[in-house]
Design a protein that fits this description.
This protein is mainly β. The protein contains two helices and 34 strands. Strands 22, 23, 26, 27, 30, 31 and 34 form a seven-stranded antiparallel β-sheet that branches. The protein starts with a helix and ends in a 6-residue tail after the last strand.
Length: about 475
């Protein structure tokens, strides 16, 4: 008995050594399935499934197969070589019916497993996907312009390849890369029988927005009763600040659409109300100033417009920095307080002219008779401490500063252009203010913009001090 037991034990020990690799490797089976039919966008999903996971990738080759008897074949577009990753039991494949040139009708696509590495192919490895093809229009998205207009709007167009018998509904959304804050109609309907619909985008410009380019990427998110075409997205750029092109000729229509910043008198009591509106606009080479004023007789002037030369000041902070340049210490000859707080001035240039030429009854052209001064003193000192008068015709001419205006029915309208090169406005900011005075009343101030509501200080009515008018400038072009 002992001998027999020893013989058996020896035999078992030898079998383990002869089979060191362990249990046999199991080979899985790969099978195929798919959606029964293509979706409305002519797509379907095919799935390859393993009977169990493997420790190595399984590679499957797909191929077209014969459709079932009585069916018409539609070609399908899909990936022919598919990998089921190690540890996974399935992989999906997108299938697109090739409808190019196809007539309406019922079709079938057939796809089979041609071969597999790392798995055995199941029996009947073929799937059939039905296509009930009804011709559908495709919708594309186009932009009329690549940038927002000066009024902050832009137009998109949804265009159908052909009119549909049903309403086509398109859902829009912002795409990746959008940094502009835009509003628009997100769900748009193209009525049955029509082929186009306009979509208006409006961009919000935040306060203190830095100059730059801010894209709005709008894309088609979904379509009902049509297909999304090849042009699925459009990009509109907010290029800030906007560029204005204004002709200074005494005709003011271009200001109606120019991208201008606007200042008006506040509601309520104001001390100097003759100047009603101030607008600023710019491009790479010029800054444009527009203002409107009333008949001085409405503001206790001793002289009506016809006989009043209207002394006029323009304060110009060419670098947009209130800490550099001069300050004006008094509103007018009879006033002890300044038009703007010292922290909100900083003038590099000071313009002092008569706005109205009584002899010819015309508005000044802002340069022929001079009156332009450059400040050369220390920062923060009074403007008259060191002014250098520039000579019209030699130091500067009408290309440096030029104005034109009209006075009709009790309202004056004036526009002025300033050369950014001459005034050294090469940065991104500039600041302005305008003031008009009474000729025969010690140059008493009648109008000032910007201006706040009147306030009482130690029993004296003063105007409200606000900041000067600041404009963000486009890139300098010389």
């Amino acid at each position: 008995m002992l001998g027999i037991s020893a013989l058996v034990a020896g035999t078992m020990f030898t079998a383990c050594k002869e089979n060191p690799s362990g249990p046999e490797t199991v080979i899985p089976t790969v099978s195929i399935s798919a959606d029964a039919s293509f979706a409305s966008d002519n797509t379907a999903t095919l799935t390859l499934s393993l009977s169990e996971a493997t420790t190595e990738d399984v590679s499957v080759t797909l191929a077209d197969a014969d459709v079932q008897s009585g069916s018409k074949k539609v070609s399908a577009i899909y990936s022919k070589n598919v990998t089921i990753a190690a540890g996974e039991t399935s992989a999906t494949v997108d299938v697109q019916a090739d409808i190019l040139g196809l007539e309406e009708g019922t079709y079938q696509a057939a796809i089979q497993i041609a071969s597999a590495e790392g798995a055995e192919v199941a029996e009947n490895p073929v799937v059939y996907i039905a296509l009930n093809y009804v011709q559908q229009a495709s919708v594309d998205l186009y932009a009329d312009n690549t940038t927002f207009r000066p009024d902050g709007t832009a137009a998109l167009r949804l265009v159908l390849s052909e009119a549909s018998s049903m309403d086509v509904t398109v859902t829009l959304e912002e795409g990746e890369g959008t940094t502009a804050d835009v509003s628009y109609e997100k769900t748009v309907t193209i009525p049955a029988g029509e082929t186009e619909k306009e979509v208006i985008l409006t961009v919000e410009i935040p306060e203190n927005l830095e100059p730059g380019t801010y894209p709005a990427v709008i894309q088609i998110a979904s379509v009902e009763n049509a297909l999304a075409g090849n042009a699925k997205s459009a990009t509109i750029n907010l290029v800030y600040p906007f560029t204005a092109n204004i002709t200074v000729d005494g005709v003011f229509d271009d200001w109606d659409t120019a991208p201008a910043s606007v200042w008006t008198l506040p509601e309520g009591d104001v001390k100097y109300g003759m100047i009603k509106t101030l607008k600023l606009a710019a491009n790479g080479s010029r800054v444009f100033v527009y203002f409107e004023f009333d008949d001085p007789s409405n503001y206790n002037s001793k002289t009506p417009y016809e006989d009043n030369s209207l002394p006029f000041n323009m304060y110009i902070d060419t670098d947009g920095d209130p800490t550099t340049g001069a300050i004006v210490t008094a509103v007018d000859n009879d006033t002890y307080y300044p038009p703007y707080d010292a922290d909100h001035m900083g003038l590099e240039y000071y313009l002092e002219i008569t706005l109205h030429d009584v002899g010819t009854n015309t508005i000044s052209d802002f340069w022929t008779y001079g009156g332009l001064y450059r400040y050369d003193g220390d920062d923060g000192d009074a403007v008259f401490s060191k002014l250098t008068q520039l000579k019209a015709g030699s130091d500067y001419d009408g290309s440096s500063i030029y104005g034109s205006g009209v006075y009709e029915n009790g309202t004056g309208r004036v526009e002025v252009q300033l050369s950014r090169q001459f005034f050294e406005m090469t940065g991104s900011k500039a600041r302005f203010a305008v003031k008009v005075m009474d000729q025969y009343n010690n140059w008493k101030a009648l109008g000032l913009l910007p201006q706040g509501n009147s306030v009482e200080v130690d029993g004296v009515t003063q105007h409200g001090q606000v900041d000067m008018a600041e404009i963000t400038l486009p890139d300098y072009e010389g």
